[in-house]
Amino acid sequence: MRAVLLHGHGGFEQLQYRDDVPVPTPAAGEVLIRVGAAAVNNTDINTRIGWYSKAVSGGTATAGLDAQRQAHDAAWSGAAVRFPQIQGADCCGRIVAVGSAVDAACIGERVLVDPVLRPATSAGHVGYFGSDRDGAFAEFATVPAENACRISSTLSDVELASFPCSHGAAENMLSRAEVGAAETVLVTGASGGVGSAAVQLARRRGANVIALASPAKAQVLGPLGAARVLPREADLLTELGRESVDAVIDVVGGAGFPKLLGILRRGGRYAVAGAIAGAVVELDLRTLYLKDLRLLGCTVFEAVMFQRLLGYIERGEIRPLVSATYPLRAIVAAQGEFLKKSHPGKIVLTL
């Protein structure tokens, strides 16, 4: 089959497109999916450049680990990355075969893959599709049957593939932060995949959404639900005032972090699922405890949350935002465009 193999940490030279990779065989309890489309995500870049390692302190646009250096903690879970690896957390496709103990009646079903690989017991470790097992940057992929979620939608494979990772992360942050109707929410990195998803999903909850994005992308965010769009470099304390926001949904981090806490109201909530501007931030603990703030790190979401997301899609309550598509063989060009951060929404690979 056709697939892209990641051979190590480093630059684009670590990505190898091949057409002779063996088709995987579904094990007991698994299904085999013919992949229709797979989206590009920050986690793909982060893993390739070794950004998850504690040896890296800068943003995701900076150079990561040297290609010859294999860090022991460069997987998102804090372990070493297994190479070669087929990445790709977002997958839309159809089930074409099943392993033992799986009802063959599901063959032919159109599915979205829930990327969170949950352990069978509480003693097990949570994994991620495309990181802890081979993912969707290939013609075929296997997943546990429970992660292959049936979807009924008129949207294309490309459009559906834009949802799982970004919208799952966004819904998780909003849920963990308990964002409700009439609350004011600030979303950073609002034109990106997770950010634009958070804008839509926060508005769906009835929140008043303030988005941070470049002026060139402001026109995209209004229709998604942003009541106000501020430039990324805006002085938030001047524009919004201290203690003016109920919750912050952040994927940026970096030097702007202290001001995000400054605009939170007392008892406010800060949820984070990314740090593209830098993972190491300045925190004044007095701000945290004197304002009774809650800081929420968000990665793993429950299966029920992904099922809710499927419902939103099927009922047309949220819509895809895809800026570009590339064939799988052009993954280097797709990641290059992704890193420019000039696109709204998602970039999707087609098979």
What does this 3D model show about the protein?
This protein is of the alpha/beta class. It has ten helices and 17 strands. Strands 3, 4, 5, 8, 9, 16 and 17 form a seven-stranded mixed beta sheet that branches. Strands 12-11-10-13-14-15 form a six-stranded parallel beta sheet. Helix 3 crosses helix 4. The mean pLDDT is 94.
List the helices and strands and how they pair.
Blueprint: E1 3-6, E2 15-18, E3 30-39, H1 42-49, E4 92-98, E5 110-113, E6 116-117, E7 127-128, E8 140-144, E9 148-150, H2 157-161, H3 164-176, E10 184-187, H4 193-204, E11 208-212, H5 218-224, E12 226-230, H6 236-239, E13 245-250, H7 257-262, E14 264-272, H8 285-290, E15 294-297, H9 303-314, E16 322-327, H10 331-340, E17 346-350
Parallel strand pairs: 10-11, 10-13, 11-12, 13-14, 14-15, 16-17
Antiparallel strand pairs: 1-2, 3-4, 3-8, 3-17, 4-5, 5-9, 6-7
Helix pairs in contact: 3-4
The low-pLDDT segments are: none
Kindly report the average pLDDT value. 94
Biggest sheet layout:
7 strands, mixed
**Beta-sheet strand percentage?**
15-25%
Give the total of beta strands. Answer: 17
Please give the share of residues in helix: 10-25%
List SSEs in N-to-C order: EEEHEEEEEEHHEHEHEHEHEHEHEHE
- The shape is globular
Brief overview, please?
With 351 residues, the chain is α/β, with parallel strands linked by helices. 24% of the residues lie in helices and 24% in strands.
Keywords:
351 residues; alpha/beta; 6-stranded parallel sheet; 17 strands; 24% helix
